[in-house]
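BUG: 3D viewer hangs when loading the predicted structure for this chain

Environment: internal workstation, default settings.
Expected: structure renders.
Actual: progress bar stalls at 90%.

Input used:
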Amino acid sequence: MRQVVLFIAVSADGYIAGRDGNVDWLESQEEPEGDSYSRFIENVDTVLMGWNTYHQVVTELSPGEWPYEGLKTWVFTHRRPEPAEGVSFTDETPAALVRRLKAEPGKDIWVCGGAALARQLMEADGIDRFHLSVIPVFLGDGIRLFEDGRPRRRLRLLRTDTQGGITELIYERAPG
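Structure tokens produced before the viewer hung:
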């Protein structure tokens, strides 16, 4: 069965972006050997992201070149942007879309970002696996991955890996 995976970089103090949404702090990191992203993406055929993440990808991080070519991408938004090849825009709730996608055959589903989408899916118990790449930096403020007051979730550690100062923590939902 398809798994919904939150694969995301997070600072050592729990932020996924600076206050203004910037992720320039990720650029200073060495590319670890055995690149976990390349291994991860082989098992994914669908990407989920919010509007802010989509907009940042197309305007700042990868303008002119869609980095998720060959993957079906869903962007959650109430806007009606210009159509983009391989990208579907939806105002469906994330939980409803995930239920529908999980019922279809395919590979894993990647929750790419941002924090609001991750929180909505977490509240709906819609994330099966958490792959957190902890970057050795304290941002001090910015956009937190999870805010206070979120429902408690028990996790089971699947594995850890450390390369180039980055610690990969891979968890799944604990039974019960």
